[in-house]
């Protein structure tokens, strides 16, 4: 088993080759990786079977079992994902601006890879090929540290991808898996400043928190979403109902699902019973404050904890507010800075919401569910950043790049 | 003395006001701050006198004394700096791109402030007003933690700036000084994740290293520059001489000064004696490898340590290389990723240098001394980033911003 420092050194060696690889070479390799996954399907499914057997012994929860399970379709989807990445424009080598300075130097700002990206993630083996493909296309070496539960599956996927790299005369060490899945290896990655340019945690709130609190490697914080929908007094009832139902129930386990409904006092009496009816079809449990409970048939009392919680389930906190001001203050206090929506017919309420809500994506009259790289039209997504440095919101290929200044002189001195 | 948590809370309160402040309001405040510094000149110089007296008691070095000293001219320059910042375009509120997604949502990416910026710096009191002005113009609250040596000067400057903020009905807590100048307060800032969006260390290599190794707050690493000039075998002697002399001697104490000269073996015999002559005018001490020493009259033998060192003085490491390849490999191994230059007449050598050298600014036929926000034409500079995340190279006002997606819908759900 290689140490993280050994993996780091090898990744740094691969970095130079990757930065110089042509778009054509990278796309051909991605297509070969996709073919390879299909060719190695049996081996991958066998490895996954080992993980699933172990998971059963461990009495793993049903939802985790589902995330862990690979099927023929899922392997095919992983392969298709790599083919889709091959079709996206190469984010490397763009000179987004170039100018001449006072001394006559031509200065261009050119996109370059970040270098070596570390990814710490949990149970889903499809993240392995997705993340590897996106890092590879953007010219980055990647060190993947997946969860213990998916170890055999991840190893089979990475072996397959490395075989394809080898066949293209590209360094296998462009994509590496950390074989030590103990907590120790995760901690070691967090301080591997010498070899990692950035660390991206993908997973639950606990993992993200541990990485943010302990890493000295630059981190991109992703994916915790305590998202809000605020229904203004001027809102149309049907639109409000559609948006909150969609934001809560379309896919409750994802980060862009709504967790709290705020509603203006002037429409609470009329709207809340109808909203409750609509949410009842999905058996959504409501945690409501006193004022909201008055207009609801069946709800639990909400506490401070409910305003902070990302349920990721068919549960919703509900609060009646006196004003747009109170709504914005509540959101900026409790939100994780992911996605928030206002439903309103009032021009100035929409303007203020856009301006004053301090989150990565701020919607007027649409569901928070749109916050992802695919829905935004980026064609890919490595995660959704909830921090302000480097990238904020859905991250596609351009967010996996840095820049350098290339300067053309004719002997200028200062 | 307020705790850092108290300062953090107050900065967060100021953040919301600052993000909404109009360009006009910010510029008027900057001009008032400039006037204020001039009005308070006597008080500021008196405070500085206290610091200087204490510094003398402490047997402070001459160069540190120089950095610490304020004069009437220096205070006027600080005021002029704030006026210049007022003239720069407001980096906040730009919608750099806007598009319509498949569902018909209009999605705009708008620049917003980072939030609260922490700055840890050392002895120069003029950094206090510079950094405060840049953070303020970009709508950020700032918490300044200057060095112990400059404490009274910093306090006088910040008090003056706060008075101007107050006079404009803006929160004084937009600009705050940490009064505890112990090591403890610096360490506390490094993990103040709840209140700081980013931490920028400005100072010597020791400070930068301590912050990078210990901070869990997102950091922008700035300013260590082990910069190289490589003279290719096709270089013109006069141009090579001008560039290395300028890069080494124009201002040796700054981060974009050259620290190592690499020279191709085919021109070492002809060029090195002439370069030595030219550098002799500034008494530059040469640390040369065996091959270079043969062509030099007076040099010390170079060791591994010399390749790594940022002399920041009239000293230069010199090494003869066999090829462009060897030069690039040496640079990518020892450089801090700041600025590197090649002197060459060969088109393909220039191309390869631009592509393969992994630094923030890569020059063909110009001095490394141009790497700063003013020379690049940005009109300002908060520092020079040597990391790849968020910003790389000279950082002006746009590098002090983040973005948010503002989305305009008409009831879209997913």
UniProtKB/TrEMBL annotation, chains A, B:
UniProt keyword list = Amino-acid biosynthesis, Cytoplasm, NADP, Oxidoreductase, Proline biosynthesis
Q: What is its EC number?
A: 1.2.1.41
Q: Which residues form the signal peptide?
A: none
The primary location reported for this protein is cytoplasm
The protein's annotated pathway:
Amino-acid biosynthesis; L-proline biosynthesis; L-glutamate 5-semialdehyde from L-glutamate: step 2/2
A biological process term (GO) from this entry: L-proline biosynthetic process
The protein's superkingdom reads Bacteria
Whether Amino-acid biosynthesis counts among this entry's keywords is yes
As for what it does, the entry says: Catalyzes the NADPH-dependent reduction of L-glutamate 5-phosphate into L-glutamate 5-semialdehyde and phosphate. The product spontaneously undergoes cyclization to form 1-pyrroline-5-carboxylate.
UniProt-recorded name of the protein: Gamma-glutamyl phosphate reductase
């Amino acid at each position: 088993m290689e140490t993280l420092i050994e993996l780091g050194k090898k990744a740094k060696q691969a970095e130079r080759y990757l930065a110089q690889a042509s778009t054509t070479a990278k796309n051909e390799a991605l297509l070969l990786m996709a073919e390879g996954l299909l060719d190695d399907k049996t081996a991958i499914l066998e490895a996954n079977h080992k993980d699933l057997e172990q998971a059963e012994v461990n009495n793993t929860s049903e939802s985790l079992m589902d995330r862990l399970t690979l099927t023929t379709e899922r392997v095919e989807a992983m392969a298709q994902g790599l083919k889709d990445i091959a079709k996206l424009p190469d984010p490397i080598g763009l000179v987004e601006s170039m100018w001449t300075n006072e001394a006559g130097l031509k200065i261009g700002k050119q996109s370059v890879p970040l270098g070596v990206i570390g990814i710490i993630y949990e149970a889903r083996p499809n993240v392995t090929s997705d993340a590897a493909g996106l890092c590879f296309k953007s010219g980055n070496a990647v060190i993947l540290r997946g969860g213990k539960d998916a170890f055999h599956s991840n190893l089979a996927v990475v072996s397959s991808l490395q075989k394809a790299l080898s066949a293209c005369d590209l360094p296998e060490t462009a994509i590496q898996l950390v074989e030590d899945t103990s907590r120790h290896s995760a901690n070691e990655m967090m301080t591997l400043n010498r070899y990692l340019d950035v660390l991206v945690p993908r997973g639950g709130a606990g993992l993200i928190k541990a990485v943010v609190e302990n890493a000295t490697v630059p981190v991109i914080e992703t994916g915790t979403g305590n998202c809000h929908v605020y229904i203004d007094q001027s809102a149309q009832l049907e639109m409000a109902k559609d948006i909150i139902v969609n934001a809560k129930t379309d896919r409750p386990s994802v980060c862009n699902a709504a967790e709290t409904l705020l509603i203006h006092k002037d429409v609470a009496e009329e709207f809340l019973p109808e909203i409750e009816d609509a949410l009842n079809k999905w058996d959504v449990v409501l945690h409501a404050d006193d004022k909201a409970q008055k207009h609801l048939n069946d709800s639990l009392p909400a506490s401070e904890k409910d305003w902070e919680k990302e349920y990721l389930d068919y549960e919703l906190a509900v609060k009646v507010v006196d004003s747009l001001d109170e709504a914005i203050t509540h959101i900026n206090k409790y939100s994780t800075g992911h996605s928030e929506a206002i439903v309103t017919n009032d021009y100035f309420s929409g303007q203020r919401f856009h301006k004053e809500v301090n989150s990565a994506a701020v919607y007027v009259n649409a569901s928070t569910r749109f916050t992802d790289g695919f829905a935004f039209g980026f064609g890919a997504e490595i995660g959704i950043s909830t921090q302000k440095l480097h990238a904020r919101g859905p991250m596609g290929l351009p967010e996996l790049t840095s820049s350098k200044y290339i300067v053309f002189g004719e002997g200028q001195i200062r």
